[in-house]
Amino acid sequence: MSTEVKADIALIGLAVMGQNLILNMADHGYTVCAYNRTTSKVDDFLGNEAKGKSVVGAHSLAEMVAKLKKPRRIILLVKAGSAVDGFIEQLVPLLEKGDIIIDGGNSEYTDTQRRCKEMREKGLLFVGSGVSGGEEGARYGPSLMPGGHAEAWLHIKDIFQNIAAKAEGEPCCDWVGDDGAGHFVKMVHNGIEYGDMQLICEAYHVMKEALGLSPQEMGDIFEQWNKSELDSFLIEITKDILQFKDSDGKALVEKILDSAGQKGTGKWTAISALDYGVPVTLIGESVFARCLSSLKDERVQASKLLSGPPTSKYEGDKKAFIEDIRMALYASKIISYAQGFMLLREAASKFNWKLNYGGIALMWRGGCIIRSVFLGNIKAAFEKNASLNNLLLDDFFRAEIGKCQGSWRKVVANAVLLGIPTPCFSTALAFFDGYRSAVLPANLIQAQRDYFGAHTYELLEKPGTFVHTNWTGRGGNVSSSSYNA
Ligand code: 2AM
User: Fold this and answer.
1) Annotated catalytic, 69?
2) pTM of structure
3) Per-residue pLDDT reduced to its tens digit, 432-475
4) Residue 107 to residues 103, 130, 168, 180, 366: CA-CA distances in angstroms?
């Protein structure tokens, strides 16, 4: 490339995601400068996948920076953690005020908050962007969730929105909010993904155990479900997986070890939920379900010693029960998203982010792993009422839950009676019943706390006034504010 033709943007990190994102940008008319720590990958990429495309390479960061238009835009797509900090450190002395570093990796939002602060002090702009959709998404349209220094948005908006997936004609990418908001939203996306996957697994488990259905039969059912309210990427791939035959003609899925791995973003969501005191129970259960699944050897041992109910077979109308399972899945999914948005709302209030909840639903509507028609309904709910407190209070979702409720209870009750674990269906229902309760038994907890630790309680009739009772007649009347038993 002659020195006067400058690249629109640079991308560091030529693993598959990075390469695909570059090709996607090139397809949309941008000239991209590619760089990688192991520079031989730059040459490989230029000589193969990027051949004939508007992609140039650099063999040093200084060369890369020199090839960029100003303000310089540099996307990092490298391993989260120290690799990101390492590149930032090397880039800072090479950049000028107003240049933009974009971290598109799976960084923890707290790291993004810290980097935003550090870059602000150096006069550089920093963006932490969630990127979802896997390799295919990166190549042909990911969901992009950028947050950080808002001044940067003006300079990256066109590129980001052009390369993003489109849903209902709109890009699945918009400015999320200040500092770590983009990565926080991505984290919650991943948590919701854990929940959605576990819910599908529970439907599969109940159909397999209680109804004795074959993978092929279940695949056909998921195919039908994908034409309903559940229409989504994850239901679609589940159909494909269940219908997939190994070379011996048997369903491959049944040969796969039932022990799930995880990279941690579901766990981070659950940890944030605990940190901020938001009952995101379904994602929490989905993380624990993976943990339990991974205790394979222990479970095999226990299965020989611990018995459940006499039968795990459902005796009623199979066809009707399949529809009940679909409804249970749908209702639980509504709860999961309601909980996810509760967490977003709490984080927004804690960090002073102005989140656009409808916009977030739209960003997840296409391109990413949790993409679904259902997210269109969520977007509509927040468009109708931007300050909607909880998704469950929206008219549409209230009616949907109402429609599903009987089936949902029937599935959970039967799963319990038949000894089939449905942690996420069950926790969703427990949450629903708790959320719709004007009175919960926490009065007794308060009494217990006051009994053993003199923590005081409030009376229903006098909220705001803290009293202590000498429950035993022994001990004193002094209350405690620091004793944490
Ligand atoms: P590499 O090809 O030189 O290993 C995904 O692993 C991407 O992150 C790759 O582009 C990889 O570069 C990069 N990466 C991983 N760890 C890194 C580190 N510590 N420093 C720089 N780049 C790293």
Assistant:
1) no
2) 0.95
3) 999 999 999 999 999 999 999 999 999 999 999 999 999 998 86
4) 8, 8, 29, 10, 22
Ligand 1 atom index nearest CA of 86? 20
Cβ neighbours for 6, distance < 8 A, ≥ 6 positions apart: 31, 67, 68, 69
Ligand 1, pocket-test mutation among 11, 19, 37, 40, most atoms within 8 A of CB: 37
Backbone Cα Rg of the chain: 26
φ/ψ of 9, rounded to 5, equals -160, 155
Q: Which two tokens stand for residue 87?
A: 């590149």
If you measure from the C-alpha of residue 101 to the centroid of ligand 1, how many angstroms do you get, rounded to a whole number?
17
CA of 83 to the centre of ligand 1 (A): 7
Q: What residues flank ligand 1, with Cβ below 6 Å? A: 13-15, 36-38, 41, 78-79, 83, 86
Share of the chain above pLDDT 70, in %: 98
131 is written with which tokens? 């990127």
What are the residues facing 173 on neighbouring strands? Answer: 144
78 C-alpha vs ligand 1 centroid, how far in Å? 5
357-403: per-residue pLDDT in tens? 999 999 999 999 999 999 999 999 999 998 899 999 999 999 999 99
Q: Residue 397: is it exposed, middle or buried by C-beta count within 10 angstroms (0-12/13-18/19+)?
A: buried
> How would residue 1 be classed by pLDDT, with cut points 50, 70 and 90?
very low
Alpha-carbon distance of 173 to 151, in angstroms, equals: 16
Catalytic hit among 193, 202, 229, 285: 193
